[in-house]
Amino acid sequence: MAPTALALILGWWLVAASGEQKLPRPSLSLHPSQGIEVGDAVTLRCHLPRLDAWVWLYKGGLRTYRKYKDKEQDTAEFFLSPNWEHTGSYRCQYQLYWTAETSELSDPVELVLTDHSFPPPSISLSPAKRVGTGTNVSIQCWNQGYGGSFLLHKDGCSAPIQCQELLGEDKATFTILGVTPADSGTYRCSYRPWAQRFLSSPIGNNVTLEVAPTPAPPGAAGRSHGIPVVAVVGGCSAAFVFILALVAFFLLAARRRRMRRDESPGAPAEKPEDEEFQAASSDSEGLTYMELQAVTPGAQPPNPAVDPQPSVIYAEVAAGRRR
Ligand SMILES: *[C@@H]1O[C@H](CO)[C@@H](O)[C@H](O)[C@H]1NC(C)=O
Ligand SMILES: *[C@@H]1O[C@H](CO)[C@@H](O)[C@H](O)[C@H]1NC(C)=O
Predict the structure, then answer these.
(1) Ligand 1 contact, 64 CB (< 6 A)
(2) C-alpha span between 145 and 153 (Å, rounded)
(3) CB-neighbour burial class of residue 55 (10 A; exposed 0-12, middle 13-18, buried 19+)
(4) Ligand 2: centre distance to CA 137 (Å)
(5) pLDDT score at 10
(6) Which of the residues 25, 36, 131, 176 has the least number of beta carbons within 10 Å of its own beta carbon?
(7) CA-226 nearest atom, ligand 2
(8) Ligand number nearest to the C-alpha of 232
(9) Beta bridge partners of 93
(10) Cβ-count burial of 105 within 10 angstroms (0-12 exposed, 13-18 middle, 19+ buried)?
């Protein structure tokens, strides 16, 4: 009920406002969207508001098919059994049945056919082994002299994830910067040969990228230049911030206590000492403690007569993996 009422209201609004307002732009989708071969059944779906309308399918800028759609539906479907002549760039547009007002054109959708007379491209992954989070990974795809543009596909994604146009080259390099575990998966390439914009090679062999949830180890610096420092800092930042917050909390608490006790305002100003960090030591339980001298970082130095015992804070530092 609710959608119908909404559609009626929308329809009324569109008709009432047609003098001043633009019609919503339609969108076009292709099913399946890739890997289409001669004779496959494909559907082009034009999505538009629930209105009585004529829907036009354009190919390469020319109107090709027209379909009537009543207000019960929100898509108009065009069925094709494509051959070479059907390849190309499609758009759709609609015209209101009652007012003859015409919408804008949708964005284009490309119908590309797979041509098995082109050999599938080759593919390689570098670094080839399991990599740590943050590593830059590159995937190279090449063909034997067909040039053109290369597309990188990831299993589970309906559209290519990257595309590269080559000029006078047969090899494309796709780079995935700072990989995360979400980049794990199976990758493949295809290419559209030079001067054949709507023909595709078959999709080639796969490479599998496995990304560990931990940052790349420092030993991997040779192949992934410079990432370890950044990655390790990034990976440990949560623990680091927690420890910093803990230390800051204790320092502030100590400072407040001292300020309350300090009763000699005329004392000469001295350069405040920096916090001293003593060497970390491990106890028998394998926990590491860092000893911090809590010194008031203000203009007034601590008064040893009032407070002979320096405040010492032990912060537990997670140094390496336990268990
Ligand atoms: C990837 O290719 C290998 C052979 O090169 C094959 O054994 C494997 O099944 C393929 N993986 C997927 C997900 O298709
Ligand atoms: C990854 O690539 C980016 C951009 O080229 C670069 O700034 C960064 O240093 C690279 N990181 C590593 C670990 O190579």
Answers:
(1) no
(2) 21
(3) buried
(4) 10
(5) 59
(6) 25
(7) 13
(8) 2
(9) 56
(10) middle
State residue 276's pLDDT score. Answer: 39
Residues recorded for the chain: 323
118's CB contacts (< 8 A; 6+ apart) are 143, 146, 191, 193, 199, 200, 201, 202
Handedness of CA 66, 69, 73, 74 (dihedral sign): positive
Average pLDDT for the chain: 74
Please name which of 65, 64, 51 lies closest in space to residue 96, comparing C-alpha atoms.
Answer: 51
Q: Is there an atom of ligand 2 within 6 Å of 229 CB?
A: no
Whether 141 lines ligand 2, by a CB cut-off of 6 Å, is no
Please report the pLDDT score of residue 65 as a whole number. 92
Cβ 182 vs Cβ 114: under 8 Å:
no
Q: Are 33 and 159 in contact (CB under 8 A)?
A: yes
Q: Is the CB of residue 57 less than 8 Å from the CB of residue 78? A: yes
Residue with tokens 């919503």: 24
Radius of gyration of the chain (CA): 33
Question: Could you tell me the distance, in angstroms and rounded to a whole number, from the CA of residue 240 to the centre of ligand 2?
Answer: 24
Q: Which residue has the higher pLDDT, 19 or 271?
A: 19
Helix (H, G, I), strand (E, B) or coil at 229: helix
Read off the pLDDT of residues 252-280 as tens digits, 9 standing for 90 and up: 666 666 655 554 444 444 444 443 334 44
pTM over cut 0.85? no
Nearest to 317 by CA among 281, 267, 276: 281
Q: Over range 92-115, report the average pLDDT.
A: 95
Distance from C-alpha of 185 to C-alpha of 211, rounded to nearest angstrom: 9
Least confident of 8-12, 151-155, 268-272: 268-272
Give the model's confidence band at 9: pLDDT under 50 very low, under 70 low, under 90 confident, else very high.
low
Q: Which structure tokens are listed for 20?
A: 């001043």
